[in-house]
């Protein structure tokens, strides 16, 4: 990072002609952040063997006695239905523990189920036959995409059958004129985006797990990610959803039209429903043209107030080209440094850092706007120091300081993760209050006798979305009890959301009342009962 | 328009310094297009007396005998509930025909109901009490906003009670930092936008009827409008909906958070449900910063192929600042000229015209991009001639050629309006095919013996959304039969939508099958039955 232009220095040299930033195709600029989460099932396998069963970690969860147990007869049916041996992992009539384990556990090593059967359908018709059968037999199921979630939503709790979507992985069509992409649910996000990159378009969603997560899972969990600020939520960009209901009904809603006001917008129900209403088998989505130039700047600030000022100025100066405004606190950056061994992008340390990305169609215009913004915040004393990426390596390097946090934390033992929405003025206060609380209780310290290693905050400032992460040496019930429900009460008082983008899963199910009132919960339960009267879809989770 | 810079001429003078376009605040630039649709109830009153009753025009619609008739007792209850005399227009126990008529008819003079009771609640609690009572008594109701719709969705068919939302018209809150606006459903769109303009923000929806339509009605009908291309659909921008269900339940979903993944996104069901599930009483919506500079260009083209080329180039050159790309055919512009007496913006006549608007944060950058685009399409021979607005009067003048079409058509007798989505390659073909069909049948001609005066096409090219308008000397069943269901079959063959943004209402109810399959229709009917088991909400319409 030493060759990155330090714009504080550049500003002091006032009249020296500014280096021009030459726009490069974004294709090569998107950092390979996937690596930070692109784990293989093998690595998960090694991990899950030591992981506690969810049924033990959550003793209040009891297997629903209304569900049938899987029989050899059932397995026979599925094997005949799906044909290919690779489509059924059978731990019921055979010993397949090692093959099954990766599907029972999550990458955080927090959740672990008891399934003995994994099915990998290859078409919506197969999904339909599976669900119709399961619904008739009252066999519970868990739809599973890339299994990159953070709330235990995509792994079984008991013996639910895993319906893994990885074999439904075809790109069905792309229309260059309208930007509409139609894909199978099991297409990996990064694969979809690379396909679009070759056609000069961009998938309007980007997140750390892009190398593993499925677009179907993204839609099922209403993923937010890094560029929601610019491209909006999936409720706006997804044009159509093809889904199979528990009774086997195929809902063919794969519209490729941007506008279609003919009746209730059924697809919206499935966006964010976490596999509790049906299984998404395909989506259509409108994709913007790929920006011709992308820039990224990184700067240090002395206070959260200054972070807020910088964000306000970024919105004013960068407006339509602002594509990300990310906040990272000093502690989170320290963890990345320790984990990667990389040198800080800036000299000295600061309590706060921001990453600002622009994406636009004219490199010179964008750079002029960005320089105007940076000069303004420097001259106003809003930021202390900053760098602007000058080439692709620096671009990736800077993004690594934001994207590397999850990875850095994962090396430390365990992490209690809270993904919350809070109105901007108090966004970071939660981190300070949480740290103070845990410190007072004697949980936080540098040596191994303290359960808590660090309380860090970072996230999507542009969306009022904070990730509060409590890094622990190992998962610890006392620490957990000190955080919950305190953290949810704190959020409720500020009319925030206890789950901004990660969803509910197992982790947040019992806390939904902090963000939804009784009326809304009743209405949600009505919908669940309407679509899934037997309750076989992803039970023990969500609402 | 004579002083508008003709860029064809400017390009011929190659090296002459180009006039600089100075960005002005958009506040004063938004044309007063509302005037084209800002009719008063008085004018509607005069009109409705001659309008055929919907129950006569649609003899297959029969009053549901399950609904109760309104009694004097009911009127007494509502008067006591609502208190203010202005809150109840009572044609049941008194003669109030003249006062009631404006609420029975629509502005197009196409639909007319038989209601004898209009209620104007002022709070969600009043709406709740009204609906609870009506649901208990099985009294049918029609929610009514600004009554600017085009499909007869907001006027009664028989004696449904009109619940007019005009007295729920308060702006509840606005947060400058996040851009989140919370308003009553009965706030007029233009009022909301003016309020935001004073605070440097923009309502992310704009349409011709802005001077009369309510934001609640916009959300209930999922209005699209002029800038969907830039700001996306209401499914993405609306953050929360407060609605009252038929049983009086108040669904308080007025979230002000951009991200909230805690359960099914209930509000989405109400967006575009046209008052059939409940009554929207308030909305929260995320509003972008108001662009600092807005430009508009208007040009003539020789073929629809060139229109498509121009659109493709506009997306490439203007990208993030493109805020509207509108198509108007030559016939539609001729009608505007005849109606307004204004001189054409361009010399000569062309079969197609486009209007391109940019909105951005830097006037110089925007003008450079726009000039680059215009020079490119001129030098490539894609467009024949064009003008670029140089001041506010010209800006308004140019928009008048697009916005004035509806008004111009309304002077001609009647208009059969079709608002459809069709994939771009064949978008305009529908107009040609329809004109050819009606001409062959001997319906089209210049003198008064022909029922059809003109078949015109215009619309939101950027959203693949065409408005096919057939101007008739008077509404004529033979013409109608020649158009329908032919037009719907034509659209179905191309996987289009028979209603892109206008909704279903009475007009499109029976044709929904052309755009939705049986499975989807069954699912929609399930939802309707779940929320409104007595079917009292806006009956005889929608699905």
UniProtKB/TrEMBL annotation, chains A, B:
<dbReference type="InterPro" id="IPR004113">
    <property type="entry name" value="FAD-bd_oxidored_4_C"/>
</dbReference>
<keyword id="KW-0809">Transit peptide</keyword>
<dbReference type="GO" id="GO:0006108">
    <property type="term" value="P:malate metabolic process"/>
</dbReference>
<feature type="domain" description="FAD-binding PCMH-type">
    <location>
        <begin position="111"/>
        <end position="290"/>
    </location>
</feature>
<dbReference type="GO" id="GO:0071949">
    <property type="term" value="F:FAD binding"/>
</dbReference>
<dbReference type="InterPro" id="IPR006094">
    <property type="entry name" value="Oxid_FAD_bind_N"/>
</dbReference>
<keyword id="KW-0274">FAD</keyword>
<dbReference type="Pfam" id="PF01565">
    <property type="entry name" value="FAD_binding_4"/>
</dbReference>
<dbReference type="InterPro" id="IPR051264">
    <property type="entry name" value="FAD-oxidored/transferase_4"/>
</dbReference>
<dbReference type="GO" id="GO:0005739">
    <property type="term" value="C:mitochondrion"/>
</dbReference>
<dbReference type="GO" id="GO:0051990">
    <property type="term" value="F:(R)-2-hydroxyglutarate dehydrogenase activity"/>
</dbReference>
<keyword id="KW-0862">Zinc</keyword>
<keyword id="KW-0560">Oxidoreductase</keyword>
<keyword id="KW-0285">Flavoprotein</keyword>
<dbReference type="Pfam" id="PF02913">
    <property type="entry name" value="FAD-oxidase_C"/>
</dbReference>
<dbReference type="InterPro" id="IPR016166">
    <property type="entry name" value="FAD-bd_PCMH"/>
</dbReference>
<dbReference type="GO" id="GO:0004458">
    <property type="term" value="F:D-lactate dehydrogenase (cytochrome) activity"/>
</dbReference>
<dbReference type="InterPro" id="IPR016171">
    <property type="entry name" value="Vanillyl_alc_oxidase_C-sub2"/>
</dbReference>
<dbReference type="GO" id="GO:0046872">
    <property type="term" value="F:metal ion binding"/>
</dbReference>
<protein>
    <recommendedName>
        <fullName>D-2-hydroxyglutarate dehydrogenase, mitochondrial</fullName>
        <ecNumber>1.1.99.39</ecNumber>
    </recommendedName>
</protein>
<dbReference type="InterPro" id="IPR016169">
    <property type="entry name" value="FAD-bd_PCMH_sub2"/>
</dbReference>
<dbReference type="InterPro" id="IPR036318">
    <property type="entry name" value="FAD-bd_PCMH-like_sf"/>
</dbReference>
<keyword id="KW-0479">Metal-binding</keyword>
<keyword id="KW-0496">Mitochondrion</keyword>
<dbReference type="InterPro" id="IPR016167">
    <property type="entry name" value="FAD-bd_PCMH_sub1"/>
</dbReference>
<comment type="similarity">
    <text>Belongs to the FAD-binding oxidoreductase/transferase type 4 family.</text>
</comment>
<dbReference type="InterPro" id="IPR016164">
    <property type="entry name" value="FAD-linked_Oxase-like_C"/>
</dbReference>
<comment type="function">
    <text>Catalyzes the oxidation of D-2-hydroxyglutarate (D-2-HG) to alpha-ketoglutarate. Also catalyzes the oxidation of other D-2-hydroxyacids, such as D-malate (D-MAL) and D-lactate (D-LAC). Exhibits high activities towards D-2-HG and D-MAL but a very weak activity towards D-LAC.</text>
</comment>
């Amino acid at each position: 990072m030493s060759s990155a232009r330090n714009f504080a220095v550049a500003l002091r040299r006032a009249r020296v002609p500014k280096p021009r930033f030459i726009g490069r195709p974004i294709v090569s600029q998107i950092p390979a952040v996937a690596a930070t989460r692109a784990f293989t099932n093998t690595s998960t396998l090694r991990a899950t063997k030591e992981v506690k069963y969810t049924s033990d970690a959550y003793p209040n969860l009891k297997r629903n006695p209304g569900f049938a147990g899987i029989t050899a007869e059932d397995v026979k049916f599925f094997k005949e239905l799906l044909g290919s041996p690779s489509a059924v992992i059978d731990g019921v009539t055979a010993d397949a523990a090692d093959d099954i384990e990766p599907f029972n556990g999550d990458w955080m090593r927090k959740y672990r189920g008891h399934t003995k059967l994994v099915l990998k359908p290859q078409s919506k018709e197969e999904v339909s036959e599976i669900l119709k059968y399961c619904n008739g037999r009252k066999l519970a199921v868990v739809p599973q995409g890339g299994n990159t979630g953070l709330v235990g939503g995509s792994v079984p709790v008991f013996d639910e059958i895993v319906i893994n979507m990885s074999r439904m992985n075809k790109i069905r069509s792309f229309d260059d004129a309208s930007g509409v992409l139609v894909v199978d649910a099991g297409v990996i996000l990064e694969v979809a985006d690379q396909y679009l990159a070759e056609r000069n378009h961009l998938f309007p969603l980007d997140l750390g797990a892009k190398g593993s997560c499925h677009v179907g899972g993204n839609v099922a969990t209403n993923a937010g990610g890094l560029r929601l600020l610019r491209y909006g939520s999936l409720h706006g960009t997804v044009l159509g959803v093809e889904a199979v209901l528990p009774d086997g009904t195929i809902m063919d809603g794969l519209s490729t039209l941007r506008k279609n006001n003919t009746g209730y917008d059924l697809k919206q129900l499935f966006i964010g429903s976490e596999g509790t209403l049906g299984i998404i088998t395909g989506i259509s989505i409108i994709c913007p043209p790929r920006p011709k130039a992308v820039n990224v700047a990184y700067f240090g600030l002395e206070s959260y107030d200054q972070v807020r000022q910088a964000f306000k100025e970024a919105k004013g100066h960068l407006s339509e080209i602002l594509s990300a405004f990310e906040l990272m606190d000093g502690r989170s950056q320290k963890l990345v440094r320790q984990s990667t061994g990389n040198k800080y992008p800036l000299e000295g340390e600061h309590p706060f850092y921001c990453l600002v990305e622009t994406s636009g169609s004219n490199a010179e215009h964008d750079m002029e706007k960005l320089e105007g913004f940076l000069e303004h915040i420097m001259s106003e004393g809003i930021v202390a120091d900053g760098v602007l990426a000058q080439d692709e390596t620096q671009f990736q390097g800077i993004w690594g300081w934001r994207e590397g946090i999850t990875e850095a934390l994962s090396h430390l033992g365990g992490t209690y993760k809270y993904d919350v929405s809070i109105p901007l003025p108090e966004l970071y206060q939660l981190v300070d209050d949480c740290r103070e609380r845990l410190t007072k209780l004697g949980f936080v310290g540098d040596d191994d006798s303290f359960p808590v290693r660090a309380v860090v905050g970072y996230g999507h400032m542009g969306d009022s979305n904070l990730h509060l992460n409590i890094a622990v040496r190992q998962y610890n019930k006392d620490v957990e009890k000190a955080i919950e429900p305190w953290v949810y009460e704190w959020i409720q008082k500020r009319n925030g959301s206890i789950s901004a983008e990660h969803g509910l899963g197992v982790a947040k199910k019992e806390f939904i009342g902090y963000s939804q009132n009784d009326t809304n919960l009743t209405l949600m339960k009505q919908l669940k009962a309407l679509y899934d009267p037997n309750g076989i879809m992803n039970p023990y989770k969500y609402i």
